[in-house]
Amino acid sequence: MITIAQRVSVPHPPDIVWSILSDPHKVVGCIDGSRLGEFHDDGSFDAIMAVRFAAIKVSFKARANLVLDEDARTGRLEAKGSDNRGSTRVQGHANYSVEPDANGSVVVLEGRVEIGGALASLITTGASIVVDRMTKSFTDSLTSTCAQLDPNSQNTPGSASDKKPRLAGLFRGAGARTQSSAEGVGN
């Protein structure tokens, strides 16, 4: 099982941050290697995400359900799926919130992911490194997207902080801080 506990500082007002985190179409734009699939009548949707674990890139397809509390700026995402070969299964949930702080907002994320099947031990062994790398990349993209929506932002369209981070950007924080704790335990 992988346990995720993240606190991400974003230098923009909570309303702007929430406007992104409450919209799956905008969130997927902040996660490298992800895209949305079909939306279903029950409110769930398909999500696809490619994740690199060491030298192996694994694509997961999951059915997700998102429940939002707009007033409290909180959400719960539940997902269940498998890799593109069907040999590794994932099931998890994440609770998140957007809270005001002195520098703008803090996004708090807590969740668990259960993994079973052929790649479970590889994935859980490297989980903390992957979670940290993905969090930094997501935070950079979220901050950049917020800057485009924030009329008080000092970023101008086309500036360096306005561009989606590339692979090198996964290993450095640009404009946002993260505090993380991820723990992977092999099955």
Helix and strand layout, with pairings?
Blueprint: E1 2-10, H1 14-21, H2 24-28, E2 34-39, E3 45-53, E4 56-69, E5 74-83, E6 88-101, E7 104-117, H3 120-125, H4 127-149, E8 177-184
Antiparallel strand pairs: 1-7, 1-8, 2-3, 3-4, 4-5, 5-6, 6-7
How would you explain this protein's 3D organization?
With 187 residues, the protein is an alpha+beta fold. It has one domain (2-184): START domain (Alpha-D-Glucose-1,6-Bisphosphate, Chain A, domain 4), CATH 3.30.530. 22% of the residues lie in helices and 45% in strands. Residues 156-187 have low confidence and may be disordered.
Q: How are strands sequenced across the largest beta sheet? A: 2-3-4-5-6-7-1-8
Secondary structural class? alpha+beta
CATH superfamily: START domain
CATH architecture: 2-Layer Sandwich
- The 3D shape can be described as globular
What is the helix tally? Answer: 4
User: Average pLDDT across residues?
Assistant: 81
**Proportion of helical residues:** 10-25%
**CATH fold type:** Alpha-D-Glucose-1,6-Bisphosphate, Chain A, domain 4
Beta fraction: 35-45%
State Rg.
16 Å
